[in-house]
Design goal:
- The chain has about 190 residues and is mostly helical.
- It has two domains: about 1-60, Glutaredoxin, CATH 3.40.30.10; about 70-185, Glutathione S-transferase Yfyf (Class Pi), Chain A, domain 2 (Up-down Bundle), CATH 1.20.1050.10.
- About 55% of the residues lie in helices and about 5% in strands.
- It has eight helices and two strands.
- The chain has helices at about 1-5, 25, 50-60, 70-100, 110-130, 140-155, 165-175, 180-185; strands at about 35-40, 45.
- A two-stranded antiparallel sheet has the order 1-2.
- Strand 1 and strand 2 (about 45) form a beta hairpin.
- Bound molecules: glutathione (GSH).
- Glutathione binds next to helix 4.
- Glutathione (GSH) binds next to helix 4.
């Protein structure tokens, strides 16, 4: 999002494999010790979609959010919350049970259940993307930044199969944007 806005920022890497995200200093920024978080002149903020929506509103001249009160603004909230509440939690479950939890606490059943639900939810996004380039209206918005981030996570978790061609095309287009390539280091086929 910062790259899309073209504003300068300093990166503060947090090494999760070393547990730096649970350090007391970082817990002052994010009480759950999760990533990402930002700090600007106004103070710290966590929750990726909240950060993205706040930045879109803070730089209105970049036109990355539909006008407040418009129908498109409603759709913008709808798809952002869809990404964050219906898609992302299943990916977090898959990540925890394949990478982050101690092996003894991992459950293949939990992964299977999360993956099944993710596929059901992704099918709704597949239907939405039929004949569309962007999730809301016909221009790029912060909602595409949110969806792009979640779909990037889904790709890492190997959840975007060939039976989701529209979602794959959308994810690749979003992640091939120069800002995403700079931000995530992505180059999708
Ligand atoms: N809903 C949160 C999810 C944050 C989240 O779970 N981040 C992961 C990394 S992608 C994390 O920090 N996990 C470590 C933990 O929760 O202890 C957001 O989108 O910001």
């Amino acid at each position: 999002m910062l790259e899309e806005l073209g504003i300068s920022y300093d990166l503060a890497p947090v090494d999760m494999l070393k547990g730096e995200h649970k350090h007391p200093d970082y817990l002052k920024v994010h009480p759950l010790g999760a990533l990402p978080a930002i700090e600007d002149d106004s103070g710290p903020l966590f929750e990726s979609a909240a950060i993205i929506m706040q930045l879109a509103d803070k730089y209105p001249e970049k036109k990355l959010a539909p006008p407040v009160g418009s129908y498109e603004r409603g759709e913008y909230y709808q798809w952002i919350l869809f990404a964050m509440t219906e898609m992302e939690p299943h990916l977090v479950t898959i990540a925890q049970h394949t990478r982050f939890l101690p092996e003894a606490e991992r459950s293949t059943d939990a992964v299977a259940r999360a993956s099944k639900r993710f596929q059901t939810v992704a099918a709704a996004l597949e239907a939405r993307m039929k004949g569309r380039d962007f999730i809301v209206g016909n221009t790029f918005s912060a909602a595409d930044v949110v969806l792009g981030g979640v779909l990037y996570f889904a790709k890492l978790m190997k959840q975007l199969d060939d039976d989701l061609p529209g979602v794959n095309t959308y994810a690749n287009k979003t992640l091939n944007r120069p800002a995403a390539q700079k931000g995530y280091g992505t180059q999708q086929g």
